[in-house]
Design a protein that fits this description.
Elements: H1 10-21, H2 27-34, H3 38-51, H4 72-85, H5 89-96, H6 100-109, E1 143-151, H7 159-162, H8 164-173, E2 181-189, E3 195-200, H9 205-221, E4 228-231, H10 240-248, E5 252-255, H11 266-271
Parallel strand pairs: 1-4, 4-5
Antiparallel strand pairs: 1-2, 2-3
């Protein structure tokens, strides 16, 4: 594949070669026309005479002969020591009088895994299972709750897109509900991933508590009894009214560790569903 600064692509090489071979252009004239050197024009013309259009592709840069490459019989010895003795590159190099980097290249060339990635008893590769994301076994075992603050965009676009003058004009002619910020309160069940969201004017304690009462009724309509709620350490979730609301419903309140927002990251997927909104209630997402 040609690099970013290449003057000729495969099509350009073909055009250059045809100008020289078929149209009879002098090499120097073709080189000036395609802005390449005289030797480059001669090379592509010769390849076109030999191989035709198929010769215009890039060839591998690997040399035809590598006289200093490790002999095949030595590579076989390296692989046998690795397979039978479970030795690393440094130990194998010490036994054979080679450099460890050379042994390492031989092992890489033949696709031999690292010692840390194999079972030393059998020599078989050990595949590490990816960590599974936690999930409560039953619906209602844990509900994630969080708030996302989003700026409202007036009709016609905001100032970051259309400029400050046009942005101020669009903001002035827009309805008051299209100005300022909106706060998306979201609740997501950890097991079923059933979500409930509302766009509210603030993120105070009373607003969050009222939202949770409606969210709890929403989950109850689907037969889900909430037993735990996980939130961050926001002010609204540390308020007395929030604590009283959960205590009255018999719900255990859990908070994430400070500066660890990824613990409550499942709510972010629910926010992605609310990218386009108009300030109205967004429920039953």
């Amino acid at each position: 594949m040609p690099h970013a600064n290449a003057t000729l692509t495969e099509r350009g090489r073909l055009l250059l070669a045809r100008c020289v071979v078929e149209d009879g252009w002098p090499l120097r004239r073709a080189a000036e026309r395609f802005q390449v050197s005289h030797s480059t024009a001669r090379r592509w013309a010769q390849r076109y005479r030999q191989l035709g259009a198929a010769g215009m592709v890039d060839r591998p840069s690997r040399p035809h002969h590598s006289p200093r490459r490790t002999p095949p019989e030595v590579e076989c010895t390296v692989l046998e020591l690795r397979r039978d003795r479970r030795l690393g590159p440094a130990a194998i190099a010490g036994r054979l009088g080679m450099h460890p980097s050379t042994v390492h290249r031989v092992l890489r060339r033949h696709g031999v895994p690292r010692l840390a990635h194999i079972d030393l008893a059998t020599g078989e590769p050990v595949r590490k299972q990816p960590p599974r994301r936690y999930e409560y076994p039953t619906p209602g075992g844990l509900v994630h709750v969080d708030v996302k603050k989003l700026g409202r965009i007036p009709d016609g676009g905001g100032w970051r897109t259309v400029g400050r003058l046009a942005g101020r004009r669009n903001r002035a002619i827009s309805a008051p509900s299209a100005r300022g910020y909106g706060f998306i309160h979201s609740a997501v069940d950890d097991h079923s991933r059933l979500a409930y969201s509302e766009i509210l004017p603030d993120e105070t304690g009373p607003t969050a508590a009222a939202f949770w009462q409606r969210a709890q009724a929403f989950f109850a309509a689907y037969g889900i009894t909430v037993r735990r709620v996980l939130t961050d350490n926001g002010a609204c979730y540390r308020s007395r009214i929030w604590r009283a609301t959960l205590t009255e419903a018999g719900i255990v309140h859990k908070r994430t560790r400070p500066y660890r927002p990824q613990t409550n990251g499942k709510v972010c997927e629910d926010w992605c569903l609310a990218q386009h909104w108009d300030g109205l209630t967004l429920a039953k997402v």
